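Narrative summary of target 7.
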Amino acid sequence: MSQGDKSKYTDKQKRKAEHIAESYEARGVPEQEAEARAWATVNKDDGGGKKPGGSGRGKTTGHPAAHKGGATGGKASAGRTAEARSASARKAAATRKANAAARA
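Modeled conformation, tokenized:
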């Protein structure tokens, strides 16, 4: 399979890459870079093309890229005391209140 040839990818993988690329473009990433990142994500998730002859044939999909955020989330606040989290919450509330007053 030549570089750039997507014939070994399933329709679902192609849709997935398109959706991911659109998301990157909406966040201001250039079109070519967004497409490259999207296919890299599909490859990470699925191990490459799923059709016979593709590198990922016969493997199950674990969706590692899709679950990355859940594994890292919450670690920062988990090591903090209840008092520190509460103080942070009070500060955030005060900031939101001040910002709302400034907009009004």
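The longest helix spans residues 82-103.
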